[in-house]
Write a structure and sequence with these properties.
The complex is a heterodimer of chains A (109) and B (113). Chain A has 109 residues and is mostly beta strands. Helix content of chain A is 0%, strand content 53%. Chain A has strands at residues 3-7, 10-14, 19-26, 33-38, 45-50, 56-59, 62-66, 70-75, 84-90, 103-108. In chain A, the strands form two sheets. Chain A has a five-stranded antiparallel sheet, with no helix packed on it. Chain A has a five-stranded mixed sheet with strand order 2-10-9-4-5, with no helix packed on it. The radius of gyration of chain A is 13 Å and the shape is globular. Chain B has 113 residues and is mainly β. Chain B is built from no helices and eleven strands. Chain B has strands at 4-7, 10-13, 19-25, 31-37, 44-49, 56-57, 64-67, 73-78, 87-94, 103-104, 108-112. Chain B is globular. Classes of the chains: A mainly beta (109), B mainly beta (113). Chain A binds chain B through residues 4, 31-32, 34, 36, 41-46, 49, 87, 89, 91, 96-102, and chain B through 4, 35, 40-45, 90, 92, 99-107.
Chain lengths: 109, 113
Amino acid sequence: EDQVTQSPEALRLQEGESSSLNCSYTVSGLRGLFWYRQDPGKGPEFLFTLYSAGEEKEKERLKATLTKKESFLHITAPKPEDSATYLCAPRNNFNKFYFGSGTKLNVKP
Amino acid sequence: NAGVTQTPKFRVLKTGQSMTLLCAQDMNHEYMYWYRQDPGMGLRLIHYSVGEGTTAKGEVPDGYNVSRLKKQNFLLGLESAAPSQTSVYFCASRVAGGTDTQYFGPGTRLTVL
């Protein structure tokens, strides 16, 4: 059965304290894994798409990586404005997206 | 470009009432989606459309109907609202092919009493 799990559910960091968010997935014939950022009261905002194991993408303080079973979102020297919920969504070979429940990140100044 | 817009932003219904949520996109996208988001759960797909005049069921379609009469609009209807339909509803759209990135609207918070 296709599924996705994100951990931890919540993460509190001090400004400048680097960490990683995990997205574990089991999908049939992965056709892309998507990362989104969601601010309170808003819709998800696209960050990255990864298509194959070993692929990495970076944007400012964020770097996403992909293996055959997991994806990580690494946050380097985070700032308070990075506080948000981060969602991952693998897509299977039937074009179905499976959204995780997210990791709520809180960065304290 | 406004991107994806949703109307209304908030709504309170009584059990048994009906309503329609409107999603509009100005990006000429072929695909449109309706999701619901509940606390502690990921976004769940309700219905989707791959083009004007077409619709298909998603993961949790019961109690909802949709229509895509115009390419830019995707309507979600609740014929007889139930408390279990209290949720935040998001619409999304994307181009066919390409990067497959979905672009989301700001959401509609619906409460059914």
